């Protein structure tokens, strides 16, 4: 259901992909952790 915040219309939505399901937005902390894990995995592959 849409609502107005600071004069702007805002509506939250869920995005569903076939076979994947729903994607949840990560918090900034979770995003940083996922990024650091990605970098570590990428570096591990390069050094092997």
Instruction: Spell out the helices and strands N to C.
Output: EEEEH
Number of domains: 1
Shape: elongated
- Estimate the mean pLDDT confidence: 82
Low-confidence stretches: none
- The strand count comes to 4
Helix content: 40-55%
Largest sheet: 2 strands, antiparallel
How many helices?
1
The N- to C-terminal Cα distance equals 51 Å
Structure class? alpha+beta
User: What is the strand arrangement across the widest sheet?
Assistant: 1-2
Radius of gyration: 17 Å
β-strand amount: 15-25%
Summarize the structure.
The protein is an alpha+beta fold and 48 residues long.
Report on this model:
The protein has 48 residues and is α+β, with helices and mostly antiparallel strands. The protein has one domain. The protein is 42% helix and 21% strand. It has one helix at 28-47, and strands at 3-5, 8-10, 16-17, 21-22. The strands form two sheets. It has a two-stranded antiparallel ribbon. Strands 3-4 form a two-stranded antiparallel sheet. Strand 1 (3-5) and strand 2 form a beta hairpin. The chain starts with a strand and ends with a helix. The model has no long low-confidence stretch (mean pLDDT 82).
């Amino acid at each position: 259901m849409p609502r107005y915040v600071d004069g702007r219309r805002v509506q939250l939505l869920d995005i569903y992909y076939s076979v994947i399901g729903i994607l949840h937005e990560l918090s900034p902390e979770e995003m940083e952790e996922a990024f650091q894990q990605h970098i570590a995995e990428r570096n591990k592959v390069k050094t092997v």
